Amino acid sequence: MDKDINYLDGEKYQNKIYEIKKYQKKAFVPKNEEEINKLKNFFQVKKYFEILENVYMEDGWEIGYKYKRARLGSEPIITAYRTENNITEEDDDYKRGNSHERFLKHVKLDKTPDSYFQYIILKIMASQFALGWHANYNDGEIVCTKAMIDNILGRTDDLYHFDDDTIKKAQAIDPQTYVELNNEKAIVITIIFSKWSGFVELKYHIDKEFPHKIIEIEKENLVEYNCGLVF
Prior knowledge:
Elements: E1 4-7, H1 10-24, H2 33-42, H3 48-51, E2 55-57, E3 61-68, E4 75-82, H4 92-95, E5 107-109, H5 113-125, E6 141-143, H6 146-153, H7 164-171, E7 178-181, E8 185-194, E9 198-207, E10 214-224
Antiparallel strand pairs: 1-7, 2-5, 3-4, 6-8, 7-8, 8-9, 9-10
């Protein structure tokens, strides 16, 4: 099967990821319904589409979120809803709050290689804000450059304590993100880092036709790491 391999601009995407993370840091973990309303008034997930210009919502649909407060882990539930409606607790996406990704079926792509990676950025990062307690396990950072690897290895707070062997292996990683296209699907190959698993290569197989869906995910742990923190 013929395939077209497209290497993406790592520095460009590391900057986009930084821009999203910078915006997400403005969020806070709300303690009550009043604070949830305050959070939703100024933190808008539709902001992501200003940064990721090759993906957009299906006509007639908007993106938003409900906020799920729980003793063991509070978190946003991203959802798509029809433009003429608001999100309610009866919405199918909200009731099935164990999934953060149902909104993706209403995300459209312009079918450029960039759009498939931007779709994956949404999948990984969209709900990484206002996380409380156990929800902080959702910490996967997308790594597109050697500079980002060095940034991670150079962190000095209590959750980061890399030994020499880990540093050597991590510095040998090639973080190039690329997209393989064939007649039926796109395959996005990228690296993430988590404090609870280390550096992992992910291969997302995505159906090229709308509604897009992830057909398969392949994972390879390149450098294992665990910060040792258990919530």
